[in-house]
Amino acid sequence: MRRSLLIPLMLVLLAGLPTAGLAQLNDDWMELQGIIDIHAHVGPATEASLPRTFDAIEAAQLAARHGMRAINLKQHYLETASWAYFVSRIVPGIQVFGGIALNRSVGGLNASAVEQVATFKGGFGRVVYMPTFESEHYNPGSPNAVPVSRDGKLLPAVYDVLKVVAQYDMALSTGHSSPEESRLIIRAAKDAGVDRVYVQHPALSRINMSVEMQREAARMGALLEYVIGEALANREEFEHWTGLIRAVGPENVVIGTDLGQWGRSTPTDGYKVIIPRMLRAGFTQAELDTMMKTNPARLLGLEDW
User: Is residue 75 a part of any domain in this protein?
Assistant: First the structure.
């Protein structure tokens, strides 16, 4: 009799103790309140993509648990507006958005595919990426490369895409285009009436946009995207990354994580590592809020939400 009573009592006591996983998540509850990750990589991924740590549902749950405001799901080969719709119905407490990268799997510079994402129920399709992994600049000579320009001029299909982006007030990422191509894209996007434009990975070695060209892009009305994944390896990498942000101006920068790859920091851990480091490096909380909250909200059209 005593033994039969002891076991339920032990179970009750153990149930009141937090597990290691839950304690890890709850210790810093709401620490990332209001932050928006414009660049969240999630699974399931195709074989052509890098393996991902979380699927879209798990990534949204983790972000919500830490008090984040929103995440934008990025895939190189699949649209994610439909993912965002279903994840939003499953995970409360966070806004989830998606978009489309114009790589070969969606038909390249396919204005029709962009319109399908733009008109998906609920307005969950917010971002259009010029070619990324299959950018001609990023993969010169590849049979799968998707060109955006020839002889210093944008291809006609780019203008078709920009018309749709402007019509539905979507955000446009320059993808993995060359610095000169990005300049052409920004100018054409502004002429077409696109309000939300940003240069993706200007500091990435395979893109390597100069500080002066980044400043020019900002003067043209674009934001510059700096990702946490490029600043975590060592002090030298971090100092180079923050030095570029200072040179460009925090008011012109949007910070996302570009995390979610298998074996790397989780997006939320990325923020928890980089924020204290940036504060110690002399950035103000207001500057961090501009780069991690205000400017991402501007790109996703959340200024008035």
Answer: yes
